[in-house]
Amino acid sequence: MAVKRIFLDPSRCIGCRSCVTACRECDTHKGESMIYIDYVNRGNSVATSPTLCMHCEDPVAPCAQVCPAQAILISPDGVVHQADEARCIHCQNCVYACPFGVPKLDAEKEFMRKCNLCYDRTSVGKGPMCATVCPTQAIFYGTYEEWVLAGRGQQGAKPVNVFYFGQQRVRTRNYVVMTNEDEALDLMALAEAAIAGNESATPEPTAGQNATTWIGSAGIPQREAPASPWTPRTPEPVTPTKPAKPAGPATPSPAEPNLVPVP
User: Fold this and answer.
1) Which of 101, 110, 118, 257 has the greatest CB tally within 10 Å of its CB?
2) Domains defined for the chain, CATH in brackets
3) pLDDT tens across 234-249, in order?
């Protein structure tokens, strides 16, 4: 069965923030919006781009990998959920580990919030709130084939889900729509070009020439996704201990020989 994904197209975003308002209606967010509208270059342009969780697939959810409490669950279809309120210890490891800067700490309720792809809707075949209200299809939800049939593939657009952060390569469930010439986004090269003031031309992706495999975080081994997103965790077996013997008269210990220190 084809997996439905989100296709983000910054060139179509008009900054109307309909997605931000609709996101608040998601039952699991309880009135909080988990999608952000960022200005691409606020000093020179009004261009905007939607930002939401990319649901990383390779490596599987760095935010979940660094969670010491295993509060971030991953469903079998690859959706990375926000932290379980009952388990989150608000250490903010996930906030620092996410390469896209998506997770945010709810300081008042002391747990991490982020986009969970409107799982209450997408798990039953409905589209996420943000995609259903976007008037320009800057946020498109569907399979790759459905995205092509929508006409964007015939307009020189190409979805990209491979990103480089220095020598780290991340492949995501969601896509960012670029041009036919783009195979991946080298975000470090883009940042260096922006610092140098050269923002007119997008630099060629170069990190793929010397990229290394994911090295993990602080030596923490990767965890496999549970069989179901809300499967209760099985506690570790407890080894029974022998009952303590009742207190009785103390048994005298054998007398130790008198030891004389050697001069």
Assistant:
1) 118
2) 1-52+126-150 (3.30.70.20), 59-114 (3.30.70.20), 157-217 (no CATH)
3) 555 656 666 666 655 5
